[in-house]
Structures are given as C-alpha cells and as structure tokens.
C-alpha cells in the first residue's frame, strides 16, 4: 500500500489513528489526514519518529512565524530577481510544475548580496506559497499535494562546487526535508554534466531515501519522457513543450526566473567565516606540502584559503614516485602561481583524472624576509551515483565524457 489517503493498509490506518490521538494538542484545522499521512510516509510509518518530526515542525513554525510569513516578510530584491526557478504549468494530474535552471544560479554573487537567513526565509516563503496552491487547487474529487520539479543542469560547473554555496544549498535541502515532507511528487534532472556525481554526492546526505527514489536523471531523450507526464501546452518550448511567453520566448522568463550574474552593486558581504579552517604559519623561505591519496578517478580536490597581509604561492602536484618529492620532481597538474589571497580569499577545485598521491603546495620559498599566516580548508569529493535512477545512456555519457577529458 502506498500510505496515501484511500490506499492505507489496516496497519497503516491503525498507526494514523494513533498518530492523530498522540499529536491532537498541536493539530490545526487544516491538518487533515492528507497532511498527517505525509509525516507518516516520510518516516516510514514509524509512529515515534513521525511524532517527533511534526512536533519539531510545530515549534519551528512558531519560532519563525511561518504561518504569517506570506503577509509579514518581503523577499529581498536580489533574491526575487536572481534566484532561479518558477512554476510554468501543471502536470497531467493537476500538480504544479517547477522548472529550476540551477546552472544559471550565481551562487557566489547571491551569498555576497544576501544573508543566509534571508535566503532560507525566501525558500520558506516560496514553499508556503506552493502549499497555498495545493489547497486552492484541490477539489473533493482530486487532491493536489505534490510538486513536479525539473532541474536543468546545463551550465552547471566547477563554480557550483564553491563550499559556501554548496553549504547554503544543502541547508535549503535539509529545511525542505525536515519541514515539508512528501512535498516532492517527482523530480527530473536533465542535461547532467560530468561533474553532476560530485554535486549529488554532496547533497545526498540531506535527502531521505523516499526523496532519492523520486529523482530521475534523464538522458538525451528527456523531452519525450517529460511529455509522458506533462501536456505540451504546460511545458515551455525550450524543454519540449509548446508554451512560450507572449513575446515568443521559448524559456518563458515571465514565469521562470533564469538567474544570471548578479551585479556587484548588490554586494554587501565579505566571506569571513573560517569555521573548519586550519591555521598554520609558513616560515620565510619555506613551503607547506599536504598529501592526499586519491583512490577514485574524477574525484575533486576542493580548496579555500586566505592569508594575512601578504600573497602566497599555490599549486597542485601529483607524485611520480612512491616517496616524498620536491616540487621540481613531481608532475605539476596545477602550476604554482602567486595569488593575492591576502586581498581576496582564494577558492576553487581541481578534478583528478588519475588515481595516486596528490600534493597541495603552499609556496613561500620566494620570500626570504616574511613568514605567512595561512588559513586553509581542503576537501576531497568523490563521485557517487550508485543509488540514483539514472538512464543507461546518461551514465554512459557521463562516463565517456569523463574518460575523454
């Protein structure tokens, strides 16, 4: 049995009855069986876990004034204008369709322009609007309670691996899972680039198993698949339908925010959060070498660092022998350059095409008068797509592109 209203096993129906009795002190008029079974399905009908979750949600909603957020909170302009996504229509069962052009999101610009708290509140604001759509469009004959999400990963690249940005996106996912259970009906990821397995592996811990089962990574024929679920007049031309804006734009930007680079005039934040960073003093005329054993091809070395007062050399090498080597004896996979990490924090990532020992090297050998104070954070990210529903041609394309690059 699916665990939805009208499709409950005797055991599930019994658990629902006990659940209603246990949490009756926090229930509101709109908390009907449809609402309660969402919490139960999200916790696999574990009564104790579902009760803990819904009570935690009630406290969170009270503490954050969620019930009045649509009236009391104004989403900041930069988020309204540049955070990607929008509802373009309804699927064949009447559920809203959200298209998200994640690759167009300027996550660095967003975090330089908006507080984390405002970004999270804007997503709560959005999800409350979507819940209102569910309520308004439900009828006695048809209950609307799920969102169809199409995530277009075109243009997604290394810039999206920026750690503060990924941390922000994962905070959104965690909030979604914790407070809006079973809101996702089905999700389609399209135009997945070869870096997608890395991004997915970072996000996976924040998704429960029920959500993961609803995510489908489509191949080159994704338009045909989408049209099995969505009528052409409800899907923009760009993604395989017949819908356009009044001016003929095939992406329907009047409905879907397409993001783009955020103008620096919005910037207000400087990255000063050094939580998790390692601090070290590099003496004058010396260097710091950090060894990392890479056992999976296409793993990514993600780095962030800053220095106090002066510049520093930075490069990445791969050992050619099974012992410690000087920089000149190793293979330079990212040539060392002096960077102004004292002016602007440095961050980036490098994809390891081969396995082996990689060496991240901070170079101060050129400075015979000054030592440098360094703050760094380095992570090794391995690809992992083993538990996703990925079409065979898609995973083949990802693998082939990885091998050829």
From TrEMBL:
Superkingdom of this protein's organism: Eukaryota
Coiled coil: none
PROSITE patterns tied to this protein: CRAL_TRIO, GOLD
SUPFAM superfamilies the UniProt entry points to: CRAL/TRIO domain (SSF52087), CRAL/TRIO N-terminal domain (SSF46938), Supernatant protein factor (SPF), C-terminal domain (SSF101576)
CRAL-TRIO domain span: 75-247
Domain GOLD: 263-380
GO CC terms in record: cytoplasm
SMART domains linked to this entry: CRAL_TRIO_N (SM01100), SEC14 (SM00516)
Protein name: CRAL-TRIO domain-containing protein
Organism: Lottia gigantea
